Amino acid sequence: MKRPTDHQLRERLMQPGPKRQGQPVEAVSPPDQEMAVWVTLDILKPYEHNPRQVKNPKFEDIKASIRAAGLKHKPPVTQRPGEKHYTICDGGNTRLQILQELFEETGESRFHAFYALYRPWQSEVKMLTGHLSENDNRGQLLWIERAKGVMDAKAMYEEDSGESLSQRELVKRLAEDGYQIAQSNISKMLYTVEHLLPTLPNTLYSGMGRPQVEKLISYREACSLLWERCTEEVAPGGFAEAWHQTMAWFDDEGQTEMNWGIVLDRLCGMLADHTGVHFNVCELTLDNIVTYRKRRWDLEEHQAFEALDAELQQMRDPDAQPPSLYPPLPDTTAESASGGAPPQKASTPTAEPPAEQLPSPRTLSGRNVRSDEGRIESEELLQLRRQVEALEREKEQLSETQSPVIPEFEEPAPVPGSAPMAASLEEDHDWPEGASRTEAEQAARVEGLTQSNWEESPGKRGYRHHLASELGVPSFDFEQLAPLAAPVLSGETTPPIADIWFIEGVEDEPRSLRIRIRELVQVIARWGGFGGSDVVIADDDGIGFDLDPLPNAADRRALFAWQALASLRGELNPEYPSDATLWGALLGTHREEGDESAWDDAVLLRFFRLVRLIRRLREHMPTQQEAQS
């Protein structure tokens, strides 16, 4: 074949090439499998629906690490169909923000361009659940952030399917997409976003956790039930606005725990203002609802609304039931039941005529007479006035003849018309020598045993003694037993210990003992720093409580308190301190330099009381098991 000349070759090279048959491609389709891709900050953007709304608490630590050693953990990215940019998936938004800040500060190229792990695009809800799972596994998401993420995922599922999802179906769909969550948490999360977030956004985003949210939900539900009970006094749809106006005052940035005493007072005040029900009745009803629902009791069966219904009946029909006194007056119980006249008490040997028995409120006749000042007063009211004057004269005579030394446990003379506030002690008790003291000695002993005050209203004290008298069991007060026993009065959330050993008959049964045991366990748990958490678990079959392991960041005091409580169950944790010095440190008989692990007196005496109650419960348990079998 003849070789072409240079001129011929030049002409052939200058001829146009073949025409393109297909359309031009502006961008290459994304890969269909995981692979490493080279990305820059210009083509990478964060995920728009990232559940994390609050800055990562470890942001500065991560930034310092990346500045010193570079990006070790490559962020996963994906690419939506039709988009040119890559988007962070399954966590990594914090790292992207740090890289952007470091590049602006230093201008180094290692922060601008890097390899990332590409994952093929699946769906929007897969992106969201991936971020939820990644952040939740690291334990860095707030409760409200998780709740918002779950709510957004539910909306995406419903948009894709075109129908609403039940909570059970939502849990199933989330699990299929790699995010495991309990159904009980789902309902609380949805409730938080719907009812609590509009009222308390700052508090929730400051880090309020699940225990506080659960307590807030229980109080809101209790207020709603009370509101619905007062159908004739309030508008059915007005509760949400009243709740919002009341609780919005408690929204504070940086707050993670509510002051529940003040919150409960405000809620009871709100209910009293709108319904007209007395404040104390609202407080009692709310406490009943919250307590009974926590124990899974039926509210109607256990008469949670008994006081409220009586108050509403009195408000709606004042003439239906005349008012009565509580505690009942002496010797008027039979009269109130039969409707007859009260029996007369034996007259007190005094110079003045004996005071007459107070008339029962149900026997007021309404006969009116005119007083000297022109006011119209009933004959019974005048009778009461005369009786009060007689009682005052009798009191003066008793004070004149009274000896300066008064036995502590001597039964006082009955005062007509007054209700007994405490059960009298038996006269045949063999009290130790020195039990009878002067008033100054008694006051000094009570003051020496009082570390801080614990308030018990006269109504609660009277009801406690009245219940004990109805059951035929003795009931004592701290002031009575202080000169004799080894009690402790401390401003704890538990009642004062009137006697470490003595157990009142009202509480000497398994259920009450378990309740008191859990109260004392929480005292020791609060001393250890884990009170009110999920570590202490209620146990209705054993000795009243169980324990979960402590968090990894627990300090030495928490470990000591946990082991002390676990020892009562016989279940020590071998990873915690368990040698003989544990008890020396707790009881204060052994203390190392700078070690503050010893119980104070209030906690120590409550631990002794806890031991006594558990021992007594153990005595009841065989009988209880036989009755159940």
Protein model, in words:
It is a single chain. The protein has 629 residues and is mostly helical. Helix content is 47%, strand content 5%. It contains 22 helices and nine strands. The chain has helices at 6-14, 59-69, 93-106, 124-137, 143-161, 167-176, 183-196, 201-205, 210-229, 239-247, 260-275, 279-294, 306-316, 333-338, 379-401, 439-449, 458-471, 478-481, 510-528, 556-569, 581-587, 601-628; strands at residues 35-40, 44-45, 76-78, 86-88, 113-118, 368-370, 376-378, 536-538, 545-547. A five-stranded mixed β-sheet has the order 1-5-3-4-2, with no helix packed on it. A hairpin with a 6-residue loop joins strand 8 (536-538) and strand 9 (545-547). The chain is elongated. The relative contact order is 0.04.
Tag the structure with descriptive keywords.
629 residues; single chain; 47% helix; 22 helices; mainly alpha; 5-stranded mixed β-sheet; 5 domains; two-stranded antiparallel ribbon; Conserved hypothetical protein from pyrococcus furiosus pfu- 392566-001, ParB domain; elongated
